[in-house]
Amino acid sequence: MNMQNDKYQKISKKITTYGMLIAVGAAIYILESYAPFPVPIPGARWGFSNMVIVYALSDTPLSWLIVLTIGKSLIGSLLGGTFLAPTFLMGFVGSIGSTFMMYLSFRSFKKVGLIFHSTLGALLNNLIQVVIGVQIVGTWAIMSYLPYMEIIGIFSGIANAIVAGVLIKRIKS
After folding, report:
1. Is the separation of the CB atoms in 114 and 165 below 8 Å?
2. 83 alpha carbon, distance to own chain's centre
3. How far apart (Å, rounded) are the C-alpha atoms in residues 158 and 131?
4. Could you write out the DSSP letters of every residue in 69-128?
């Protein structure tokens, strides 16, 4: 019986932890929509809500990372009033692609730091968003935003990795 209680406690702890990460990611998602963006690109965001994915990257299976990504995006967009808007769809698909990229990168290149994985994820996220934007608007002119978004993505990826790294060190110590 004690073994079964341990099992349930572990499952409860896991669900609670990931629920809190989803809540934090959704809150950041909403807050960043109010943060001024330095480049006048419609619907562009900083991408700081992806910090929870970077934080969880080291000890989370891909399936749970996808749950985190979907959860923070859906809840954040529902509460922020952007659910199913074109910018939501662009960011949602970009975040899922980014999560896959960061997971594969992290598992393949263990010796490089979180900044590499986070920045790689941010760059792919922006590329996916711009490609979807081309499909939505129906013109390749949207690609002119890509260099600006990638520069911002580099800074966002670095910032997410630094914050996630600090949190990992503080929580583990």
Report:
1. yes
2. 16
3. 23
4. HHHHHHHHHHHHT-TTSHHHHHHHHHHHHHHHHHHHHHHH-TTS-HHHHHHHHHHHHHHH
**Burial of residue 35, with CB atoms counted within 10 A of its CB: 0-12 exposed, 13-18 middle, 19 or more buried:** exposed
pLDDT in tens, 101-140: 999 999 999 889 999 999 999 999 999 999 999 999 999 9
Burial class (CB in 10 A: 0-12, 13-18, 19+), 147: exposed
CB neighbour list of residue 108: distance below 8 Å, 6 or more residues apart: none
Q: How far is Cα 138 from Cα 140, in angstroms, rounded to an integer? A: 7
Contact yes or no for 69/95 (Cβ under 8 A): yes
